[in-house]
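ingest -> validate -> predict -> emit
validate: passed (alphabet ok, no gaps, 177 aa)
predict: started
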Amino acid sequence: MKTLSLFLLASILTISCSSNDDSKPEPLPNPVPTENIWKLDNYNYARRVSNQSTSVQGNFTIVNIDSNIATANSPYTNCNLVITFNTSSIGDYTVKTQNTMFTNSTLKYMHIRCQIASGNGTGAVYDSTDSNIMANVALENGKFIITIPNGAILTRTSNDGMVNPPNNFTLTAQKVQ
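emit:
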């Protein structure tokens, strides 16, 4: 389990969530796309890059999605999602904590980690809580696609210098991959 936790941490650190880009943030395109978008409360994000991998320990699939850095979400200019689920099958998964998912590795559970960044080098990390919220996993062109329509609660688990980040966010996602 330590190996998988280290793998998840390495995944988050691999994709940078902060930017020293001083250019003015751009809003989402109009019309807003209907895929590869997600919301943290009222903050909107669109995918910039995505990596998908299966861990070597157990049957865990990890989808790592980084937002477009040019968003108008001051002070949360960037958002990285790491979505882990414990089988390689499509269908509905229940959103849980990382510990619950690891402990029940044969059940269709999903853990979500979100790292937000301010653009000035500060950030905060949020993790999913044990819930009955359902997320759907589909497979298209060899890539897993996740939809979270009903809002999964993410609770702040660490803060790296961000001023007054909220304790919780509600995450919804539309066909992110």
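The CA atoms of residues 3 and 57 lie 7 Å apart.
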